[in-house]
Amino acid sequence: MSRSNVIQHRIEGPLFIITLNNEKKLNSLHLSDYTRMTELLLEAEANPEILCIVFQGTGRFFSSGIDIDDLSRQLNQPKDFDLSSELVSRMEYFTRTAINHKKILVSCLNGPAVGISAAMVLLCDIVYSMNDNVYISFPFSKMGLANEGALSESLASKVGPALAHEAMFFGVPLQYDQLKDRVINRNYNMTNLSEFNSKVLEDLKQYLESCSPESLQNMKRLFLTVEGSSKIHAISNEGITALNLIHKNVPNKRIKAYVEQRRSKL
């Protein structure tokens, strides 16, 4: 599939919809795909008619996270500090853009979310699930990496330190019951993906009809005033840690074993 088709978007009234469309690879994403989503987030923010950005998936996963083959290629480039810094800064830019976004961010979980894509879900203001067959997982320690996407702050603040520590240290998935009312706002209890995505959009449009756009924007700003600074501080520390691990070649030593383990489970 052409990379231009992996991240799709459209506008429906006040909604800017970003669809992850790599179903055959469980919506795994290249680094360039996260860059594309950053561009779309900025485009949506600049559009005064947009009130919500909605992330939706295709297939049975919301997103299995970073494409391991693409990540391996990037990490196997000559060990140049500027290159490593660029890799880290691109992910940090995506995360920073999501954190500081002025519009309401909504994730529609049609299935599991993994890694940096799961971190993206935690940065959203509202999360809906198609049913209870969803989970989020953070296999960074298995890949020789560490916290990314402001997870150092967002995960513990959402689910509490006890669950967050086990999920991060050991890659233990957080199941629906652990996410309900902490991360997930509402379970639609549906089995048809198309109907789920359509129903969420219908509900959001109905909610927004009775809301003042100015009120929504100011509410989002006030939430950011309280929550944003701690997340920004987190991603700065996470970026430094990522650079150190990459330059010690830790990810390259771990990724092959992780890939083989993951393929046996999918």
UniProtKB/TrEMBL annotation:
GO terms for cellular component: peroxisomal matrix. One of its GO terms (biological process) is fatty acid beta-oxidation. SUPFAM superfamilies: ClpP/crotonase (SSF52096). GO terms for molecular function: delta(3)-delta(2)-enoyl-CoA isomerase activity. It is found in: Peroxisome. It comes from the Eukaryota. It holds the Pfam family ECH_1. Keywords: Isomerase, Peroxisome. The keyword Repressor does not apply. Signal peptide: none annotated. Its main location: other. This is HHR113Cp. It comes from Eremothecium sinecaudum.
